[in-house]
Amino acid sequence: MVNPWDRAPHLVMWELTRACALHCRHCRARAIRRREPGELDLGEIERVLEDMQTFAPRPTLILTGGDPLEREDLSGIIRAAVGRGFAVAMAPSVTPRLTAEVVAAWAGLGVRAVSLSLDGPNPQVHDRYRGVPGTFAATLAIARAVRASGLHLQINTAVAPLTAPTLPEVGELVPALGARSWEVFFVIPTGRAGRSEMLDAAAQEAWLRWLAEYRRQVAFRVTAVGAPQFRRVTDGRRALDGPGRPAMREAQGMLFINWAGEVHPSGYLPLSVGNVRDTSVVRLYRESPLFVGLRDPARLEGRCGACAFRAVCGGSRARAYAVSRNPWAEDPNCPERPETARTA
Ligand code: SF4
């Protein structure tokens, strides 16, 4: 079967630097305080952008880190991307560098959206999770600045044992802030996040069901990250009938470029297939054996391999790898049993 994501990703997550002033307990990037030698420079970034212009349709670029604001050439990078026809979204860290003036300048440069992390409905949860007091209040202030600038505001929420119980309260805050999308990330134990930061299968399934119900009641976009089984939860057997696209997940509709140019299937699956310094990222996305394999449901093992939903879901390949060091293994955070899938 032809996978509609075979030719081009919808999202390119680009980690411009690992430097960041925050110290989040689940940080995928294992962010560090200072920039490192070896980051892609502006000229190299421009060459990669020119290469990616052959993706059709052109993917949205999410400029992230670490904290992209640690780079003094960030405006030049944004200009280079917008000037080549890419939709650009910013995923900054909430630090004193991120001000209303910076957000307004991004709007002037043609940035479309800003995503902010909000992991709890109060400082007790959010600041504890992010590791820096005052981050909750600063996040609300910047959210207002994003809306005032006319940019699309996205809220990202990490779901871990500490934050999960407050998800309904965060769900009330999201529309109150004027957000137009809410991305709920089920933490994957990679980078600084240990196994204790991950929900178990039953808890994840229960929160996915809560999220599906929440989504039915709101008019903005609600997505689950690190949990492609959200498709099964929201659509049930209907997910198997229509011509709809498979869930976006690692190497399937997305790719990740790290600070040094290494290309990964996602930021949570730290397997490099090559470096943009010497290989076309378009070729890596379309042809590298790992990327091609990750789009092939026949490669899946365990319960995912035997599951009726394998072509539309396929499980989180990053979580499978994080837990078993095997990117083809079953997603351990899914209670679905193949027998159930066949007879439901
Ligand atoms: S068993 Fe795997 S493929 Fe099936 S729904 Fe669960 S995560 Fe998805």
Tags for this model:
single chain, 344 residues, alpha/beta, TIM Barrel, 10-stranded mixed beta sheet, 14 helices, 10 strands, 13% strand, binds iron/sulfur cluster
Describe the protein.
The chain has 344 residues and is of the alpha/beta class. The chain has one domain: TIM Barrel, CATH 3.20.20. The chain has helices spanning 42-52, 74-83, 100-109, 123-130, 135-148, 167-176, 201-217, 230-235, 238-241, 281-287, 289-294, 302-306, 317-324, 338-343; strands at residues 11-15, 60-64, 88-90, 113-117, 152-159, 181-186, 221-225, 249-250, 253-257, 263-264. Strands 1, 2, 3, 4, 5, 6, 7, 8, 9 and 10 form a ten-stranded mixed sheet that branches. α6 (167-176) links the parallel β5 and β6 (181-186). The radius of gyration is 19 Å and the shape is globular. The two termini are 24 Å apart. The model has no long low-confidence stretch (mean pLDDT 93). Iron/sulfur cluster is lined by residues 229, 232, 303-304, 307, 309-310, 313-315, 330-331, 334, 336.
DSSP summary, beta strand count: 10
Classify the beta-strand content into a percent band: 5-15%
Helix content: 25-40%
CATH superfamily: Aldolase class I
- Which structural class is indicated by helix and strand composition? alpha/beta
- Inertia-based shape: globular
CATH architecture: Alpha-Beta Barrel
Short description:
The protein has 344 residues and is an alpha/beta fold. Helices cover 35% and strands 13% of the residues.
